[in-house]
Each structure stands twice: as structure tokens, then as C-alpha cells.
Amino acid sequence: MSLAAAGRVEVTHRRFLAIALPATLAQMTTPLLGLVATAAVGRLGDAVLLGAVAVGALLFDFLFWVFGSLRMGTAGLTAQALGRGDALEVRATLARALLLCGAIGLVIIVLHVPVGALAFRLMGTSEAVTAAAAVYFSIRVFCAPFAIGNFALLGWLVGIARTDVGLGLQVFIAAINAVLTLLLVLHWDMGIAGAALANALAELAGTVAGLLVARRLIGPAWRLPLATVLDRARLVETIGVNGDIMIRTGLLMLVLMFFTAQGARADDVTLAANAVLYNMVMVTAFFLDGFSTAAEQICGQAVGARDREGFRRSVGLVLFWGFGFAVPATLALLLGGGAVIDALTSNPAVREVARAYLPLAALTPVMGVTAFAYDGIYAGSTWSRDMRNLMLGAAVMFFAAWWIGRPFGNTGLWCAYLAFMAGRGVLQALRVPALIRRTFA
Known about the structure:
Largest sheet: none
Shape: globular
Distance between the termini: 28 Å
Number of helices: 18
Number of strands: 0
């Protein structure tokens, strides 16, 4: 696809899946970064080091997930520029996103000592684990500009409908990380420092490869006037869109952390059972998020091209494939979830509790499908302010439902989570008609 393509947007099942499926696979490679480090350090036989990697990886997951929202904002702005046929702005969008990523990454590096100390204190880890995790954190933190920059690069590739290239880059990062981790941790005996260094070098390699790929896709006209990159109005738009989505993501994480904390307060068995169920549900979330990513590109391009009919068809396509996956996924969890639980844990008590709450957890895909679909639609359309405000409304619904359901314990907690997922989709769906009228007026 030309970076200057414009006019009516192609909205077909084939094109939708061509974007969605590579995006799904690309996102499934992300957990491999922490998994490889955990596996390698686990071979050393030191529980302290293994715990330190888990704590350090969790902290980076939190930091990078919040700023990972830059992918959504970049995808929406890029897709709209592509829809307008503005090849210069397609390139400038990436440059501005990378500038923002670099600035955020540098701030994280500068503040990493007090941030790390506060995080470890809140986690309540032992002195030995904290000391080892601090080593991991102090090394891996220097990859922050590159790790966040890779989100922007992936978002740009989504915006130009090249999720296949994005998948290739994610696989490249995961492969580099795996090879370096095995060499540094097991062969050269660098321990936890080796695991952190491997991850940092893999992110750096991914950024370099991503920039080379972007230059090749852009072609000879890759140079940009500095005045275009630093255009005040565009910079404000970039910061505003991404800032709103960051706040939205922070609210989402608040709900998920509260959900986990309430399970922990019940007892260890309930916490473990909820973790098993949530990990099962997250597999379906990768696919729904892939459909959301396709929506970012197709809907964003339709907005840029001022193709109202194409936008409406895009919304219908996203919902069609979302429900087409979510309903069978819920049925599969209901029918086969017990076997998955048995495979994930051998603890009889955890198995029993997980099976008791499986019917509620299995409803998550079908209750949350509209939330995923409209996340992509809103991000692609850069309706970021409404996205932020409606997430706040859904979070309020969650806490209200949890308060009402407190007497029912973990059942009430799962019902509150389902209400949150459904509420997100309903609130966004109700707001869409007004936003379409405003956008295509």
C-alpha cells in the first residue's frame, strides 16, 4: 500500500483479517520476553534471583504497559494521515512519536532510583529479593527509550496496515532476547544482570531494525523538514491524544490491580484460582486485541479519507469478527476450561475453587468483546478524550458493583469485573453516533 493512498477505504473481511491476525501473533510474542528470563534464571536454582526477576519484570510491565498506549495513539494518527493521502504527515507522525518516546524514556531513566525504591517498598519484598531486583531494574531501565519507541514503531506500522512487518519485528526482538539471555545468563554466568542486559540489548536491536524497516518502507523521501516535525499544533495533538490514552490505560490497570488485590485478601487459594482463570481469559484477549488493532487502522484511515460509509462498514466488520470469536471462545472455556485448569495447576484446592468460578470467568470474552472492538474504533478515530472519560465511567461502575457485591465474596468480585467489561462497551457504543456526526459533519 502506498503511503500516499487516499480516497474510499477498502473494507473487506480479507483485508481486516490480513491486519488482525499478524497483530494478534505480534502481541503474543510480548510475554516471551519475561518468560525467557524467568526460565533461564530459574535454571540457576536460586529462589531469590527467580523472585527478583519476577518482581523486576512486573515493574517494567507496569511502566511499559502505561506508555505502550503510544502504540494506539500513533496508529490512529498515522492511519488518518494515510487516509488523507498526506505522505509527509505519515512520516512526521512517526518522528513526533519517537521524540515523545525518547523524552519519556529519559525521564524514566533520570527518576528510576526513587521510582524503583518506592515500587519495591510497596511490593513488600524481602531484602535479598529487593537487592537482586534493584540490579535487574537499574540495568534494564536504560532500554526505556527503546522499549517505548518500539511501541511507537509498531503503532506506525499498524497505521500503514503493515502488521505483518510489525510481527516480524516482534519475533526478531524475542529471538534476540532469547539468544542473549541464554548466552549471558547460562553460558557466561552473568546471573540476573545478564537477563536484564539481554532484554535491554534486544529492545535496542528492535528499535534499530524498526527504523531501518521504516526508512525502507518510506523510500527515498524519508527526510523531513524540522519545522514539520516540530509543528506546534501537531505536537500538541500528539501529546494530547497519547496523554488521554495513557490516563485511560492507567484507569484500566487500577481496576485490574484492585481485582488482583481483592483476590489476595480473600486467601491464597482464591488468589491462585483467580490467577489461573485470568491467565486463561488472557489468551482470548490476545485475539480480541488483534481485532481491535485492525479497527485502529481501518477506522482511522476512513476518518482521514472522510469516508463515512467506509467507517460504518468498518465498525460492523469489527463487531462481526469480535462476536464471531468471542461466542465460541466462551463456549470453549465453559466446556473445556476444567481440563485447562487441571493442566495449569496440580493443587486440588486451587482446582476446586477455579472450577467453581469458571462459569463467570468464561463469560469474559462475550461480555468484553464490545469493549475491545470500540477501543480500536476510538483509538483509530483519535476520540481519545471520550475514550478517557468513558473509561473513568466504567471504572466507577466497577467499584460500585464491587461495593454492592461485597457480601458475595469472590463471586461478587467476578461479577463486578464482568460489569466493568460490559460497561466499557455499552458506554462507548452509546457515544458513537454523536461522535460519528461530529467527525463526519
